[in-house]
Amino acid sequence: MSCWMPGCPALSMCRGLAALPIACLERAKDLKTRLGILLHKPELGHRTGSSSKLQLGSRRRDSSREVLEWRESFDQLLKSKSGVNAFHTFLKTEFSEENLDFWLACEDFKKTRSKTKLASKANRIFEEFVQSEAPREVNIDHETREITRKNLSGATSACFNEAQAKTRTLMEKDSYPRFLKSASYQDMSRQAAGSRGTSKRSHT
Length: 204
Hints:
The chain is mainly α. The chain contains nine helices and no strands.
């Protein structure tokens, strides 16, 4: 809008803008640019939302496959973090979670590099799980218990290997088959199979 008449509002506005410092005008331009970016954000958000939905769907398919793999072997179950959690929950119902806790403690123990920490951790694990009448005593024979006790005198990352192997065998032959037959795992595997079936149909 242009106007040459005295007292015209447009003319007054132009004079007012001309009188403003350049810094103010630059700030106004910057604000305008930012507002433009904000106005376009919903569109960007929509695209990001679609991408996250695809990633979520992919994660669900992966977890469904994982659940079904647990029944292939005990090793497959132990390789899966969520599988270990599900198995631990099941063992709690049987009051035998100390076997898995001991196995996990041994796995963590093997990663210890400091000799000082190795010795202190070894004693702590032995006192908690292995020694006779320990607070969370695992079910191993007397001979294995004594071998493990002797290993503590020169603690290495392998000092629990025999006791850990015996506990693992016990879980694999005893608790693991019952876990696979449990109502909780049966429900999980049905849901996983249903989820995979739906996924396959949607891709055909």
